[in-house]
UniProtKB/TrEMBL annotation:
Organism of provenance: Fundulus heteroclitus
InterPro entries for the chain: Kinase-like_dom_sf
Biased composition (Low complexity): 71-89
Name of the top EC class for this enzyme: transferase
Region (Disordered) residue spans: 50-94, 107-128
The enzyme's E.C. designation: 2.7.1.32, 2.7.1.82
Pathway info: Lipid metabolism; Phospholipid metabolism; phosphatidylethanolamine biosynthesis; phosphatidylethanolamine from ethanolamine: step 1/3
Assigned protein family: Belongs to the choline/ethanolamine kinase family.
Protein's recorded name: Ethanolamine kinase
Domain of life: Eukaryota
Gene Ontology BP terms: phosphatidylethanolamine biosynthetic process
Catalytic activity: choline + ATP = phosphocholine + ADP + H(+); ethanolamine + ATP = phosphoethanolamine + ADP + H(+)
């Protein structure tokens, strides 16, 4: 699937948005921590919840059920690493703003130990509420971008609810009240995505917006209804929330592999050099080595992590992957259950029920990272609502047989329109090594990412515990595949 000439029309229409985004992404000089574009840091005054039930684009109209969206590389713009909150738990819960970041989670017992003040702060779980300022801004965005009946509804009748506990973005379901009919083709409900604080530059946001528009045009992703510096309005797709344990279901695993093979075949108008992986890791490493934590619990956990000698370990990882052949393809880079919709309303004759979403990390990258990262996701549960708000079950990492099943499903789609004369058995063996070595890169990347989030994020999440879990998994995996 190639980038069609007609797509340039969409890119041209995005030019004014991109210009505005670059200007508004510059943080006010006096702020000591990153804020959202245009100084709208007061927009996010509550934290999201990791909820069970339905996925990001699903739920009863404006119900509270939602999916746990996964994180990714953090702060757009130049983040200040001086935002760690050392105040009391009560002060933290009254914080006027909430900085979100890209992330992941693991399955381990809740580390509620006596000296862990961070764990003690969240004994009651996550808070869940849409604040007044967020509702007002959402109302204006829906009215201005959706028009039709949305312009006739007053803010008092406007319906909005949190539908995800994402660590990357804030996700809301916005609905017209039942008594208001549509006057045209405007949607009755939409997904509002408000960008969180992320660790990459504004250019990555621009590319992701362009990518989303292209995939929407190709019907490979949700429709795009509106785009603005603070976020966008997307098509709401009724779906059942995928659970982590469903990733191992043979039927689901085969379809995910098929979707991934098609994704890898796409030709996109982006830099074809695989700079994303180690470019991101190097950037994170530089920040991690300069971090100064204030909170005692963070200081202890940081010192423990530093005993791994991460800079030296990164050199070894780089050498290992340099010796591991892996083709460069257009990768999703975040294929986990929260980014896969199980669609409910499909054509009667369709045998496909899944759709990949959330392309903020997509880029040209080594194919093995998509495999390894996805296999790691089999262990992670993002719906745990008690400290540290994640669980990891290491034994859920796919077995050799499960990996082969996934790889064979991938290859079946990959070779569907072309003949392969190579030894299939050897290809499969090479891909297993490729996937499991690049799983190391997944652990390393998100481990570093999580350390930074512990410093700058206001999200209710055990980032330092999560970082420890990722590096523990890294060294365990390394013994098997280095």
């Amino acid at each position: 699937m190639r980038f069609r000439t007609s797509s340039y029309v969409r890119l041209f229409r995005l030019s004014s948005f991109i210009s505005e985004l670059r200007e508004s992404a510059r943080p006010p000089r006096r702020l000591t921590r990153p804020t959202f574009y245009g100084g709208v840091h007061s927009l996010l005054t509550r934290k999201l919840t990791m909820q069970s039930g339905r996925n990001a684009n699903h739920g009863n109209c404006c119900g509270a059920e939602g999916r746990a969206e996964k994180p990714g590389p953090g702060l757009r713009g130049s983040p200040s690493l001086s935002s760690e909150d050392s105040g009391s738990p009560a002060e933290k819960r009254r914080a006027a703003s909430s900085l979100l970041v890209h992330e992941r989670h693991l399955r381990s017992p809740s580390p509620l130990v006596d000296d862990d003040s961070e764990a003690e702060s969240f004994r009651d779980g996550r808070s869940e509420e849409v604040d007044r300022d967020t509702k007002s801004r959402a109302f204006l965005w829906c009215r201005d971008f959706l028009s039709g009946s949305w312009k006739t509804v007053g803010e008092a009748d406007f319906q909005i609810s949190i539908i995800s506990g994402g660590l990357s973005n804030l996700l809301y379901l916005c609905c017209l009240p039942e008594h208001v009919p549509c006057v045209g083709e405007e949607p009755r409900q939409v997904l509002l995505r408000v960008y969180g604080a992320i660790l990459q530059g504004v250019d990555s946001l621009v590319l992701e917006s362009v990518m989303f528009a292209i995939l929407a045009e190709r019907t490979l992703g949700p429709k795009l209804y509106g785009i603005f510096p603070e976020g966008r309005l997307e098509q709401y797709l009724p779906n059942t929330r995928m659970r982590t344990e469903q990733l191992s279901d043979p039927g689901i695993s085969a379809e995910i592999a098929t979707k991934l093979a098609r994704f890898h075949k796409m030709v996109m108008p982006f830099n074809k050099e695989p700079k994303w992986l180690f470019g991101t890791i190097d950037k994170y490493m530089d920040q991690v080595m300069k971090i100064n934590f204030v909170r005692e619990a963070h200081v202890k956990k940081y010192k423990k992590l530093m005993k791994f000698d991460l800079p030296a370990e990164l050199k070894r990882l780089r050498s290992l992957l340099a010796a591991t052949p892996s083709p460069v393809v257009f990768c999703h880079n975040d294929v986990q259950e929260g980014n896969i919709l199980m669609l409910e309303d499909r054509d009667n004759g369709s045998t496909e029920s899944l759709m990949l979403i959330d392309f903020e990390y997509s880029s040209y990258n080594y194919r093995g990272f998509d495999f390894g990262n996805h296999f790691c996701e089999w262990m992670y549960d993002y719906t745990y609502n008690e400290w540290p708000f994640y669980k990891v079950t290491p034994e859920n990492y796919p077995t050799r047989e499960q990996q082969l099943f996934f790889i064979r499903s991938y290859l079946a789609e990959h070779h569907r329109h072309s003949k392969c004369d190579l030894d299939q058995t050897q290809i499969e063996e090479d891909m297993i090594i490729e996937a499991n070595r690049y799983a190391l890169a997944s652990h390393f990347l998100w481990g570093l990412w999580s350390i930074i989030q512990a410093k700058i994020s206001k999200i209710e999440f055990g980032y330092m515990d999560y970082a420890q879990s990722r590096f523990d998994a890294y060294f365990k995996q390394k013994k098997l595949y280095s």
